[in-house]
Amino acid sequence: MQKVNVITHKSSVYHIWGCPYLKHADKNHLQILSDYAVKSGQYRPCKYCGYSKNLPFKAQADKLSRYCEENNYQYQLEKDNLLIQTDISFWKVLYLPYRGKFILLHGNHRPNSSEIHPYSDHMYHRQKDVPMKETLGEYLTYIRRHDQAKKDFHNKLDNLAGRTQITNKKHRKGVTKRVMNLFDMLEKNDPSLKQYSFA
């Protein structure tokens, strides 16, 4: 994933796109800096973002840590990726520096251990009902709601399965009783039918 370096007008400090310091800069005075210019030594990196691979996540680290702790989620930062593991699902948040936004991916598997593993991209799919975001907060809320809805759905299925078994049992008993009553009526009308009785 390409890193985009940006400088403000007449500045010798360059920033990685997404640095909080750029939020207050005049967008008309931002200039993309080439890798060649960065390596030339004419510019110096921002003290906040210039040395951090995880800048977009670092800027929201406190909120991320607090939210994950409150909801018993595990998380791990890997380059431009954030891996989140809940009790029923895996999530990956990618940062797209050229857009300054995050995208959300959902794991194609359920967790079977208490550790987060660096699963490869092909084991995730894009969560298309969630658009790109500039902050993590809405994704964290979405993950919590998504998992709760999934739990509620499975609980309803379990309850429905239990009720269905009881209903089926009652239905079988009712059918058996009606069939036995029918045979009793037939035998009363024609006693010769008793020879075909199973009981």
In short:
With 199 residues, the chain is of the alpha+beta class.
Distance between the amino and carboxyl termini: 78 Å
Total strand count, please? 9
The secondary-structure class comes to alpha+beta
Report strand %. 15-25%
Helix content: 25-40%
What sort of overall outline do the alpha carbons produce when their principal axes are compared?
rod-shaped
Largest sheet: 5 strands, antiparallel
Helix count, DSSP H or I runs of 4 or more residues: 4
Question: What is the radius of gyration computed over CA atoms, rounded to a whole number of angstroms?
Answer: 31 Å
> Unreliable stretches, pLDDT < 50, 5 or more residues?
none
Give the strand line-up of the largest sheet.
Answer: 5-6-7-8-9
Order of helices and strands: EEEHEHHEEEEEH
Number of separate domains: 3
Average the pLDDT over all residues and give the rounded result: 75
Structural features, described:
- The protein is an alpha+beta fold and 199 residues long.
- The chain has three domains: 5-52, no CATH class; 56-148, no CATH class; 151-196.
- Helices cover 36% and strands 21% of the residues.
- The chain has four helices and nine strands.
- It has helices spanning 35-39, 55-58, 61-70, 137-189; strands spanning 5-8, 13-16, 30-33, 44-45, 74-78, 81-85, 90-96, 101-107, 124-126.
- It has a five-stranded antiparallel beta sheet with strand order 5-6-7-8-9, covered by helices on one side. Strands 3-1-2-4 form a four-stranded mixed beta sheet.
- The protein starts with a strand and ends in a 10-residue tail after the last helix.
- The relative contact order is 0.09.
